[in-house]
Task: inverse folding
């Protein structure tokens, strides 16, 4: 999905925060992430590098015997849902807000703005265009295709 230019600074700050947290984890003898066996064998030192760390890590480390050490995982989707609902409440929104509603709104706004269904399909990662067609049900017309250049005159 496209990234709004105004979010780049916030994203850079998140990366700095993850880097600081990762340095603290390394200082404690941790800072390793799980890599599948083939990758773990091929890139033995990469599991401790910053580029393999999660962009949105969980606050707490998880200690599982299968890992033989405590590791930090990504933020759990339930927590993400709680954050989004909390932000919606703080903003005074009365409509139901969740991750799916944001995705649905994104797709609907694209279609309402005249983007063709194939572009929306690609942005949403749908393998079949019929899945993307679900988003056209909220439009007043059966779907939007590429506008004619004559319509722009």
Result:
């Amino acid at each position: 999905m496209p990234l709004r230019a105004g979010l780049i600074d916030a994203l850079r700050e998140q990366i700095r925060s993850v880097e600081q947290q990762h340095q603290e984890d390394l200082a404690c003898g941790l800072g390793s992430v799980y890599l599948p066996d083939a990758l773990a064998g091929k890139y033995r030192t990469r599991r401790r590098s910053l580029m393999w760390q999660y962009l949105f890590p969980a606050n707490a480390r998880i200690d599982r015997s299968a890992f033989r050490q405590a590791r930090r995982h990504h933020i759990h989707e339930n927590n993400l849902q709680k954050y989004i609902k909390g932000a919606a409440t703080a903003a005074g929104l009365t409509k139901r807000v969740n991750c799916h509603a944001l995705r649905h709104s994104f797709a609907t706004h694209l279609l309402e703005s005249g983007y063709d269904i194939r572009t929306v399909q690609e942005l949403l990662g749908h393998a079949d265009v019929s899945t993307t067609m679900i988003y056209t049900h909220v439009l007043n017309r059966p779907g939007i295709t590429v506008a004619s250049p004559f319509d722009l005159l």
Observations:
- The mean pLDDT is 84.
- The beta strands are 57-64, 69-74.
- DSSP finds six helices and two strands in the chain.
